[in-house]
Design goal:
With 140 residues, the protein is mainly alpha-helical. The protein contains eight helices and no strands. The longest helix has 17 residues. The protein starts with 12 loop residues before the first helix and ends with a helix.
Length: 140
């Protein structure tokens, strides 16, 4: 059975970019050590320039650095995005196996892509809100 995560009143960025698994992981990487308030104004520009893993893996680092500069730690972000995108193209078993993807990205991947939300115990505030929404509203 295919999983379609329901839309919540929280309007998480991961909800907006479902079912694109690479974009969901990029959202998580961009949100790392920053806030939605910082990511939201620049994310459409990012995806307009790099709509998929192949384009990001081959991106000009200087251009990407300029796009993500407002988020801080831009050198590390560019390295992480490019390396994760390269690995994504090769294939992976779990999101946590990809460069730069920790528990948060893996939890988001399991919730939004695999539909394994019942087995996930998120630490992130927004993912917790969504997880609670699934538990209480849709699957009580």
């Amino acid at each position: 059975m295919a999983w379609t995560p329901p839309k919540s009143p929280f309007d998480l960025l991961q909800e907006r970019y479902w079912p694109d698994d690479w974009k969901i992981l990029i959202v998580c990487l961009l949100l790392n050590q920053t806030s939605r308030k910082q990511v939201e104004p620049m994310i459409e520009d990012f995806f307009d320039r790099w709509p998929d893993a192949a384009s990001a893996a081959n991106a000009d680092e200087d251009v990407m650095r300029d796009v993500v500069r407002s988020l801080g730690m831009y050198n590390r972000r560019v390295k992480t995005i490019k390396k994760m995108s390269q690995q994504f193209l090769v294939g992976f078993e779990n999101a946590i196996d990809l460069y730069g993807c920790g528990k948060y990205a893996n939890d988001a991947y399991r919730i939004f892509i695999r539909g394994e939300w019942q087995e996930v115990k998120p630490n992130d505030h927004a993912l917790n809100d969504y997880h609670g929404y699934l538990r209480e509203v849709h699957f009580a």
